[in-house]
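Complex 162.
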Amino acid sequence: MSKIAVFPGSFDPFTIGHESIVRRALPMFDQIIIMIGYNSEKRSFFPLEKRVEWIKKVFSDTTKVTVETHEGLTVDFCNKVNAKHILRGLRTAADFEYERAIAQVNKKMVDDLETVFLLTMPEHTPVTSTIVRDILRHKGDVTMFLPSNITTEELIDHVEKS
Ligand code: ADP
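Predicted structure with adenosine-5'-diphosphate bound:
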């Protein structure tokens, strides 16, 4: 049976920190599905289609990583794609507390589902999608926080106009 992990998040936008977690997890799984969770009643910073496109571009060098979108519970998506692992990154103690509760609840809902955590690389600890968005609002350069084949210009062109 192939080992499938789901890496869920909003990825608004996908950062170098997200990329690092996925690449480091690749040897552990046969397939990693990056699941962009969305809520049709909530506005995102970047359009869903663009987030899908950028993540596909980042992982164009491997067939082991795919990208899908999902509205609803992560555990329902895992059941649908037959994944037994959820992948998450941990940056800080605050991340841990938040993630702990979600992982424990997910495990209660689906007993054979395990959440696997990777600690962030020290240099990626301060990188968050929120900070990247804040810099972009003021037209700052975020290239150093993005995967190497994504540019600030590509992102700035697609900020959802509010
Ligand atoms: P969410 O909307 O669920 O918070 P995010 O898109 O912010 O999702 O993040 C998805 C996952 O990536 C989470 O597990 C988060 O902890 C992890 N992550 C985010 N930024 C980093 C980073 N800089 N280094 C390592 N992991 C990260």
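The first helix runs from residue 16 to 25.
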